Amino acid sequence: FGQVAASAIIMSTGLIVSFMPDTWWGQIIAVIITLIWILGIINATNFIDGIDGLATGFTIIAAIFFLIITLHLEQFYVALMAAILVGSCLGFLLFNFKPAKIYLGDGGSTFLGFMLASFALYGEWSFRGPVIALGIPVLILGVLIFDMIYITISRIRNGHVHNFHEWLDYTGKDHFHHRLMNLGFKEEHAVIFIYIIAIILGLSALIVEHARVSYPVVVLMVQAILIFVIISILMLMGRKLSKD
């Protein structure tokens, strides 16, 4: 209920995705997409908070890229909030990386997810069309989005979850970081590997935002597909090893 209430407060200020048609049905779909986006990113951030330093470090990386792009686009309010989040998380990460002395807990991780989801909605990410504007935050938060979609499909298909409440409460060992550890990664190495993927996706978002090519959507899609194919292969390999 708290997550839905927080999402409703954000949307009541008029912060709703803007790529849908300006019709009554378009606005209804926009509200639904916005709610799914906020709830999805909140819980995706909570989901990756399974090993020391992962959620905090990922938030730092994502917020840095949000900061860079919003500064370039002169959206200084979002840039300021992103800078504050980076600074606070950097101080926390010193004590949260393995071996962790302090932990985010559900309250901390969901707050970070709420902030990241809000940045994506507040920012005007491109002046070159809605597809690019949508693609930039999706790339920056790509690790979260991919992990959430993958484990959701897997859990529904395997009969582990049957409704939204079960989806929230289910705690499995099927996340990306678990798959990496099944492949032989140490916990801290899995965290660093995911950091690297997040940085690559963030750099891809910067390239797309600065691109001056005829078909930037093609560049965006190729970059995203290559990264997510690699992640998919690693996830499937980790799943096979966990079964063995």
Automatic annotation (TrEMBL):
Instruction: Indicate the enzyme's highest-level EC class.
Output: transferase
Is this entry keyworded Magnesium? no
Q: Which Pfam families does its entry note?
A: Glycos_transf_4 (PF00953)
Q: How does it sit in the membrane?
A: Multi-pass membrane protein
Question: Which keywords does the record carry?
Answer: Cell membrane, Membrane, Transferase, Transmembrane, Transmembrane helix
Compartments in which it is found: Cell membrane
What GO MF annotations does this protein's record show?
UDP-N-acetylglucosamine-undecaprenyl-phosphate N-acetylglucosaminephosphotransferase activity
Please state what the protein is called: Undecaprenyl-phosphate alpha-N-acetylglucosaminyl 1-phosphate transferase
